Amino acid sequence: MIRSPYWIALGIALPLAGCGDDGEAGSLRNSAATQAPAPTASPAGTPRTLPAPIKTAAEPDRILACSAERGRAAADRLVKICTSVSPATHPPCNVANSCAMIEDEIARSCALLGDDAATTPGCSVAPKSDAAAAAVVRRYYAAINAHDYATAWTQWGPDGRPGQRFADFQKGFARTRATSVTIGQVPPSEGAAGSVYATIPVTVDAQLTDGRQQRFAGQYVVRRVNDVPGASADQLRWHIDSATLKPVAP
Among 25, 151, 184, 197, which residue has the least CB neighbours within 10 Å? Predict the structure, then answer.
């Protein structure tokens, strides 16, 4: 199933690229730690429902397809992995979707497999590992770079970023043309109060639609529920919990 693609203005909108008060930049700079509510699980085999994009008549309705981003051969390989692990009847494993969306479905499916993920060929990254924690942040910016804001939104959890509407989240990216993230050395994750937290140091580079360059440095904190009895696969997945980013010289 191909999700409805969409694009905002000339390109991606970075959650930290010169946005107004309604964008994500202000909250990230203020570095207020936001505690995400415990996510609810999606039953195995049930496709996720992502928020509908906000569009105007002047805005084209497309995202950057995985086949365009990485080439058809690489996209086909990713789709093959996705279809091999996804339990959904109509999973979003299609080269016309963003690579981030396809990779998110792989990560979701591997989390549903639980301990069986370790012996499943398509689950090359253990769902509870620190590498999987860092992958959430990479996937977040990959989705933004592909103008797939719905997939970026769900990296904060099934209900998106706490305390913010999806419409405002999407509008916050309207003036960003491109972005990239560099992830630093990730320290070992730590447990506290029934959850596990991982700190992901980042440097984010952005190009605005007016040609200006911006750079931000800081960290994301990602969280998952600890291995407690009754925890769902979705609760055991890593999600962004908070972000602390400050502008630095490009």
Answer: 184
Name, in order, each residue with C-beta under 8 angstroms of 132's C-beta and a sequence gap of 6 or more. Answer: 107, 125, 126, 238
Burial class from Cβ neighbours inside 10 Å (0-12, 13-18, 19+) for residue 156 reads buried
Cα 100 to Cα 8: distance, rounded to the nearest angstrom: 17
Taking the C-alpha atoms of residue 40 and residue 131, their distance in angstroms, rounded to an integer, is 23
pLDDT tens string 65-90: 999 999 999 999 999 999 999 999 99
Residue that wins the pLDDT comparison between 221 and 62? 221
Rounded to whole angstroms, the Cα distance separating 81 from 182 reads 25
* Radius of gyration for the alpha carbons in the chain, expressed in angstroms and rounded: 17
Shortest CA distance to 86 belongs to which of 66, 63, 104, 62?
Answer: 104
- Alpha-carbon span 210 to 175, nearest angstrom: 8
d(CA 166, CA 140): 15
Residue 51: band (very low, low, confident or very high) from pLDDT cuts 50, 70, 90 = low
User: What are the tens digits of pLDDT across the range 182-213?
Assistant: 999 999 999 888 899 999 999 999 989 999 99
Q: At what angle do helices 99-113 and 72-85 cross, to 10 degrees?
A: 30
Backbone angles phi, psi at 9, to 5 degrees: 50, -130
Which domains are delineated in the chain?
A: 25-248 (3.10.450.50)
The answer for residues whose C-beta is within 8 angstroms of residue 135's C-beta and 6 or more apart is: 103, 107, 125, 238
Predicted model pTM: 0.78
Question: Alpha-carbon distance 200 to 221, whole Å?
Answer: 6
